[in-house]
Amino acid sequence: MIVWATKTGNLAETSEVQKSVEQLVMANPTSYGDFMMLTASADYPKTFQLFIGVPEAFLRLFPGFSKIDPMKMPDHMSALVVSDKFPQNFPDIAAKVRARV
Q1: How many domains does the chain have?
Q2: Is residue 51 assigned to a domain?
Q3: Distance between alpha carbon 37 and the CA centroid of its chain, in Å?
Q4: Strand order in the sheet with 66-67
Q5: Is there a domain that residue 40 lies in?
Q6: What is the pLDDT of residue 101?
Q7: pLDDT at 32 over 70
């Protein structure tokens, strides 16, 4: 089961989390769609609200993250790590992702 979690971080933390999520994607190629990362600006460019979607067993790899109800995630997020099946598998969350310009 995929769980969603969040924490506030700065640019360096955002990069570290993104690298960790990408490493999990590479280490689990048959489940690559189970590892996601999105962000929303909390106080750009100082802080970001980070969101990850991972299988529950992997949440322990992300200290400081707290589970969140995906329906409480903000509108206008940016997708940093998602699979091509993200819109199909998580349409309510995908609808909150802004298009990159």
Answers
A1: 1
A2: yes
A3: 2
A4: 66-67, 2-9, 47-55, 36-43, 78-81
A5: yes
A6: 40
A7: yes
